[in-house]
TrEMBL record:
Pfam families, alphabetized: Luciferase
UniProt name for this protein: Luciferase domain-containing protein
Biased composition (Polar residues): 17-31
Region described as Disordered: spans on this chain: 1-38
Coiled-coil region(s): none
All residue ranges annotated as the Luciferase domain in the record: 84-152
Amino acid sequence: MSGAVPVAMPERPGPRPSTTPTNPHTQLDQQPSDDRPRQRLIGQLADLPDVVWAASTISVPGAQALTLPRGPHRGPPDAFMIDTEFAHLHPAPDHSLHLVLPSAAAEAAIDAGWAEQHPIARLGLISPGAVMVYAPRDAHEADIAAGLVRASYAYATGSTRSLRAKT
């Protein structure tokens, strides 16, 4: 996947999970039965250059944020939720994540059933590409989620180099 995310995505099996309609934007069902998908997801993101993992400054307590150091080599302002935070993973029992994608990629993820637009983005208060990616329920879904986070990273860094997820 290159800096602009693939627009064709496989369909997510099953119905969409239930979520809250406002902040905190939380996934209410269809979480994984154990922590293995989340650990696989985190493992695939460990090698993103220059990413600093920190407590989220915009999400619920316990959320892990992916941030970039301050500097001149960054993507557009719409690639971030706040400051240099481009994605965050919600703690258990939620396990969903929020991230920012370019508009076409966000639409593709939503259309394929992997994500939904953040309710605050629908109001125009944050980037229109801010989405909730549903909690991965298995290894395959963790791979899809990792690809979306890598696409968010590419958007945040203005990168065009390949960012394929490890398999």
